[in-house]
Amino acid sequence: MNASPILRTILWALALGPLAPLPAPHPSAPPIYGFSPAHAAAQRALEVQLDAALHPEDQRAWMERLAARPHPVGSPWGKENALWMAGLFRSWGYDTRIEEFRVLFPTPRKRRLEMVAPTAWTATLAEPPLAEDRTSGQTAEQLPVYHAFSADGDVTGEIVYVNFGVPADYAELARYGIDVRGKIVLARYGGAYRGIKPKLAAEHGAIGCLLFTDPHEDGYFQGDPYPAGGWRPETAAQRGSVSDPTLYSGDPLTPGVGATPDAKRLPREEARTIARIPVLPLSWGDALPLLRALGGPVAPVEWRGALPVPYHLGPGPARVHLELASDWNLVPAYDVIARLAGGERPEEWVLRGNHHDAWVNGASDPVSGMIAVLAEAKAVGELARSGWRPKRTILYAAWDGEEPGLLGSVEWAETHAAELREHLVAYLNSDGNARGFFYASGVPSLTTLAGEASRDVTDPETGASAAARLRASLLLYGSPREQKRAHDGQPLPLQRLGTGTDYTPFLSFLGVAALDISYGGEEEYGVYHSIYDSVDHFNRFVDPGFRYGVTLAQTSGRMVLRLADADVLPFDFVPYAETLGQAVQELQQRTAGMREEATETNRRRAERTYELADDPRHPLLPPPAQESVPALDFAPLEKAVARLTGSAQAYAAALNRAAAAGLALPAGAPAKLDRILLQAERALTRPEGLPGRPWYRHLIFGPVTSTGGMKTLPGIREAIEQRRWAEAADQISAAARAIEAFAREVDRGVGLLAPGR
Amino acid sequence: MNASPILRTILWALALGPLAPLPAPHPSAPPIYGFSPAHAAAQRALEVQLDAALHPEDQRAWMERLAARPHPVGSPWGKENALWMAGLFRSWGYDTRIEEFRVLFPTPRKRRLEMVAPTAWTATLAEPPLAEDRTSGQTAEQLPVYHAFSADGDVTGEIVYVNFGVPADYAELARYGIDVRGKIVLARYGGAYRGIKPKLAAEHGAIGCLLFTDPHEDGYFQGDPYPAGGWRPETAAQRGSVSDPTLYSGDPLTPGVGATPDAKRLPREEARTIARIPVLPLSWGDALPLLRALGGPVAPVEWRGALPVPYHLGPGPARVHLELASDWNLVPAYDVIARLAGGERPEEWVLRGNHHDAWVNGASDPVSGMIAVLAEAKAVGELARSGWRPKRTILYAAWDGEEPGLLGSVEWAETHAAELREHLVAYLNSDGNARGFFYASGVPSLTTLAGEASRDVTDPETGASAAARLRASLLLYGSPREQKRAHDGQPLPLQRLGTGTDYTPFLSFLGVAALDISYGGEEEYGVYHSIYDSVDHFNRFVDPGFRYGVTLAQTSGRMVLRLADADVLPFDFVPYAETLGQAVQELQQRTAGMREEATETNRRRAERTYELADDPRHPLLPPPAQESVPALDFAPLEKAVARLTGSAQAYAAALNRAAAAGLALPAGAPAKLDRILLQAERALTRPEGLPGRPWYRHLIFGPVTSTGGMKTLPGIREAIEQRRWAEAADQISAAARAIEAFAREVDRGVGLLAPGR
Prior knowledge:
Two copies of one chain form a homodimer.
Chain A: H1 5-15, H2 37-52, H3 56-66, H4 76-91, E1 95-117, E2 121-122, E3 147-148, E4 153-161, H5 167-175, E5 184-188, H6 196-203, E6 208-212, E7 240-241, E8 279-282, H7 284-292, E9 319-340, E10 345-355, H8 363-385, E11 392-399, H9 407-415, H10 417-423, E12 424-429, E13 436-442, H11 447-455, H12 466-477, H13 480-488, H14 504-509, E14 513-521, H15 535-541, H16 547-565, H17 574-606, H18 609-612, H19 635-660, H20 669-680, E15 701-703, E16 710-712, H21 714-721, H22 725-753
Parallel strand pairs in A: 3-7, 4-5, 5-6, 6-8, 10-11, 10-12, 12-14
Antiparallel strand pairs in A: 1-2, 1-9, 4-9, 9-11, 13-14, 15-16
């Protein structure tokens, strides 16, 4: 059959008729971006079929199975899960393979933390089983409370409380005359990615690092602890990787290349992402005796958490002995990759994934997201068996080893880098799911895709669309900018990307448009990375009845199907130009703010303002004198963004006109246009990457080294924040050139949509 | 001798020469407002003598004596203290008398609080003695933990946690579908004056009220609890009056008239300021079991304190039995009034005071302030004995019965209302003192007086002026407006007046310019109204060495002497006009904000925004529909303020010119001018007072009934907040007329300073 894609879909929808009658297209159904009106109607019919194939009971059963036993990377149950999921995909008609990598995954051999002064005390470092939680007693298979990629070590020193342990906190400590050289820092979780904290502590001379969960951020301050409520109990600690994700992601021994069995590996001591000092996570029950034993100044107000003691800074008199040793094993990681080949443009790949490994049982993280991917894949498989076939190829992935550093996704992306850069349209990630509001973060060109999908699914709690719920929430609780946009009825921007999940290699290393989605905000989720992240917890406090598991599958299913079937790939560049415009403005304001702050600080130092405002019984040192901030020329960037804005608007107008005319493009044009759109994001990368971090090739989104947070224009931002002015100017040029190149791609798209205009 | 005041002061200063040589006036010494340059130089010399007569050891000895035993109103030690202070004043040459009133002062006969469900538990209601605190064991003389003017009662009911118990909190509770009818509310201290909380609770139908001290506001969240540090320990509760101060102050039985022995008294049940339900204060140790036993929804984030439990709203299952009964005795109150008659204008009185009664030993509250008044009076007495005499009369007052409702000051002011309205220039209050930064709040016409005094005293910790320290502190930590003024070097405005201390009758009932001053901000003061407010606490955590006790005496001594000796009374009307201008702008913004909020709330209700943003498992009701806010004509007020601004500037210019010319005014003019200035503040009052509250006659400053907070333009503000639009318009007219009248007085002053201009 050689029907046009639109005709083909309509024929297929008609073929389904007896099974599920095709609803008449709503006369005023809103358009779908990238689809002609006729094709959009057929697509809606397809999506009705998709929804009909989604069953919460599937997800319940799969969660019971996947989260039945602890399943970190390298574990027997992790392998069982991979094999079992591969079987599922095959049974649904996917061409499925398991790809195996050999990755470094340290597990603890020795863990000891004891206070040696002013009193003797030994930390429990244990999460006790609960009668109310069926799987919490699987102690033989649980990884204990620890941080993967901590250094081995045996250190003794006084404690200093460093708040979140971010750069501003060390600057504040300096005002108290406190440094951490030779000390063991005690930091609470929050404020930055966990892996940053031991890095910064070591840079400041600390010999050890303890990360505790303060109930202010994660515990009884939020609500009733588990098992009475869903919040973190006194004994629960947060496992996690403390490798530095800002240099590169994935296996520390194989940066930039796949960790295949025969890959060339760095010696461990040369792996720069592994923490340089011993690091250990603590529950608040294990942190409280340490905090209580601290002396020295009372911490600044913002540093005080919810534990019932005055928070002191130290150093000492609390002094601890910390001893940690790991087995540094290479373990197998099993990625499951399932393929449904496209009928018309099989060389264009749409990828959807979630990881399957967990720190322990991981009902919420990651299983709640994994089962939504499975549900979607099963439903799409049913569509395919009914005669429909996607225009483009759809891939589903279940990644292993995400928890210790995105091992499965990164090694796969590195192994297949060349073909993925060539073929991958977009990567759509999730990493768990809960109950509540639609959340989407990603590259701005996918804003319209995400917005329309959330517009077209029904929130199970309210009967409104997911988009309407999100808009209502932002109107009441959003940032001022979000409130204004919600109030004015403008399209809602995506959230900014975070760090530390599986879209990173696709966006940052490959330059592929990526998106991360989930539902949440109403769950009671205080069991992250603990033994209590269990099916029992999930069923009571996260998504009882799996209603949002179905909604996530409906939402991402629409996005995958639209990416796979669109007449024109649904990239929208107007939000990209807007985001970049805001980012440039922010950086200009930041620079101006730094300039004013330098002037004001130096003036206040000269006028003794700090001394006069100070309490001599609790003295603070004045902040150090600041070098003045030179003028920085943002003009190249402003010019590039202005050009992109024009190109994006021209593209949007051309696509609108073409869609209204039924998207009847000249022969060959659609494929050429797809090629341009698929590749456009690559223009925003450069092979040498960010300064000192060649793995991070994307110039618009990337982590800053000081917090690990994903930021816009990270190269420029970091150079400014570190006061490397020449580098800032270089990075402005590089980003401006990339944006100009991106705009040229968009212009080429305009040329294909509106030849001769 | 009939020398001019300036000459007289110079002669006196010369007379002191042999004892303490007169320092040469600093060639660039800044001017003193209200003084000619020559007189200013002499005044500075006088102030050097004042400083020389201030000795920290005096204050140490007096504190030991006054705080040696518990001394609330009606107690034996309170009477002893009054008699002893009267003796001191007499020994320093003052014409001294004790004025006695008979005031209602309930003390507890029965106090019982027990939880009857879900578990049985009885509150301790006790503050145990500490070995580290000498006077904490004087249990026989201590008033127990209680609230004066609580209703007697015996009630049993479920608990509802109401946060601070202010109107916004009840509005929030309504969104949870929770009301307090038939319930006992549990409120934390903070957010509003204590006496407001049972009033609002009763208005909402509660049958009892428990006020606890949350360590977030007052306890370990701030620092180490006493005796390790100075912050509130687990067992310390906050005694206090819960009479409603927004209707009238002073003895509840004698509103508007002095509580002389033969005064006509209301029956107790007609005294509207007495709480209508039983109220009891709790330490956090006594509150924690109740909070822990509460169920129901988790409280909003802002409602959560620092106790180590999730804060639930209830109602119940915690259910308590509260039984309270007082002895409702009339007790004697002893005000000590000491007079130093003025030599030239004895009919113009400058009043300086502090209270002497305490809830228990009261080293900080009130003794630390009282001893600074004594020190000042002793030093001024020495000046007088050396031959100097003030131009105007100086009065020192030690008030009794401030703690249970300003009983001593109010009854004295009411008793002497006619003569005080006639003679009183200003009232300068303090109510304790600590360590740190200069604090002054009061009527804006005294801004320059306070600013110059703080400019002219040296901060004992830094050697800078007190004003320079304050400016530095505001520059770093002030509100945006304060930061800007501090940054730009503009004069610093006074703080806004609070409620609940002895300036209230003078300002609010008499219409006398009033000011409240102290030093503080660096103390560790977590023992307010507890048995631990002791000499031992003070010496370790408040003002060790009494250095700021001396500084306070220097500061208020300068203010009193300048008020007493100035050529022209040092009122400055420019800050008054500025304050009023800001207040009018604020009210306009508030009204516009209410209008926008009404529109937006109604729109959100119509669009189901609240439902869509809500978590159906933890539902919130939408806020009620709001009536739209009509246009309110602020033009009369704007016009009046504009006129006052012009008058104030003309007055300032005329006084400047006159001062430069040596203040050589025509005969008779100075006395006439004084008369105008002394009386000007009365123009801002009206006999019928605020709506429904005739005791509160001042139209510019007064308490709002919903929080007890002192606000500008309270009549207008309250009408707007209560949406009584016709009343708001009336109040705008009344305030505008008062401000016009005030401006006319200022104009008359201009006429006397610059006749014929």
